[in-house]
Amino acid sequence: MKSLTQLVAQMVMPRINGMQLEDPAYRQEIEALVREGMGGFILFGGTVERTPARLAALQALATTPLLISSDVERGLGQQLQGGTRFPSQRAIAAAISRSSTPDAGLLQSMLDAVRTETRAAGIQIVFSPVMDVNNNADNPIICTRAFGDEPGVVEWFGSRYITGLQRSDHKGRLDLLACAKHFPGHGDTDQDSHSVLPVIKADRARLNSVELPPFREAVKDGVGTIMVAHLLVPALDAEKPTTFSKKTITALLREGMDFSGLIVSDALDMGALAQAYSQEEIAVRSVTAGMDILLHPIDARVTINAVVAAVEQGRLTRTRIEESVGRIHAAKMRLGLFDTAGTTAPDIDYEKHRNLARELSRRALQIVSGDKKILPLGSDSAVCFMLDDDAEGRGDAFLRALQIKVGTFSGTVLTPDAELQQTHLDEQLAAADWVVLPIFSKISASKGRSGISPKLRAMALQIIAAAQTAKKRSVVISFDSPYILEQFKTADLCIAAYDRMDEIQQAAAEMLVAGSRVQ
């Protein structure tokens, strides 16, 4: 019989850094946690050449098999070098027609690739799909991570992600567990829970018609895990954040939706909770509310000791702990982690998967305003003003592709600190047939805002106006939030790319010059 500490340890899933596993000292720290009975880890980073072997070695040390999870919303390449990076969920929704049988097959091929690569790497839980309905254009953290801003679109794609990722083998074992996140819906906020506690102000009727339906559908599809967001949703619980809310986690999700899988917290070190509560209180209140897995705590041992102490003090019962551990054990059984027979590593055709990513990238580009008949713009001469909102120089793939395709080309990178002289602008436009304004404004944790800085917006409008005066075509492309384009409809063409991966940047350059894949 396991001790209380051993049981609680099964509920805790701290961070593991794949690249650091090559360092003996770091590896010893993680091995110590494994020997103490940790239930699993959330993996960040690594390589397909080395990390799978390191994870296998950790599994060999574990008395009870580990659950290894990872954020691979965009394929294994999002985390492991050498894995295939696929477009964002919003880009996939743009690339795939729901009424097309061939498109459905293309989507399934992508999911097969993600599933095969991810399980071969030693990962069993994929924190995907995002089931939020992104119905707030100023959302700084969901945005293109969501399939869209309509519940029906989110439900359709989410259903296919779940069933595609959770396919079973001939013995009925699942390759992966998918995860619907971020319950009960992180789409309608302009705040980021990595930094603050966002408030969802929708009433219960609106929640039932917009935010909650995708999660209900996910439960019907048999999703293995659901991640609870750090939010305050007064319509569900006016007093407690969702992470601590028994009304939300147990009454609504577990009982109301009849969800029998694993309920996992969002990262417990995020500012939404960590700024207001101690890590001990975060752990105890989360378990009290009905959480099965405590993800990414600040300190795994502190978290375990806090829950054990809460049981000993009568704040929690051992039965409550055993319920979650039973569900975790059942999930490990479904994944075949207790099977003693070795499995043969599959031969993975990464080049085939990369070609698939390129095809989806070409399909993802969408014209959202303007006249597509002006494409192709031609390859004689062009000028590019890259709007780099984060000053990170992430548009190199687009610039290189245009330089190759356009005879006379000049490129200028504008950051929020840059200055734009009208005389210089007029000179550049005079020497070009057309002008393109690619926008890079990343969607990332703790950035705190969505969209583009006011100064860059003003410069972009100045460039578009100057192009109109000079009778030159202007095209704006957003490689991140599509909602940015609403501000630039005076341009001749606005194109949403939904993702900044190199393949999409290259496809966008091809569209401008050759007019390929015009939607």
Keywords, separated by commas or semicolons:
15 strands, six-stranded mixed β-sheet, 519 residues, Rossmann fold, TIM Barrel, 2 domains, 18 helices, seven-stranded parallel β-sheet, globular, alpha/beta
CATH class value of the largest domain: Alpha Beta
The pLDDT mean sits at 95
Radius of gyration: 24 Å
Overall geometry: globular
The separation of the N and C termini measures 62 Å
- Strand order in the largest sheet: 2-3-4-5-6-7-8
Quickly count the helices.
18
Largest sheet: 7 strands, parallel
Within the CATH hierarchy, at the fold level, what is the topology of the largest domain? TIM Barrel
Can you tell me the CATH architecture of the largest domain? Alpha-Beta Barrel
Which stretches are poorly predicted, pLDDT < 50 over at least 5 residues? none
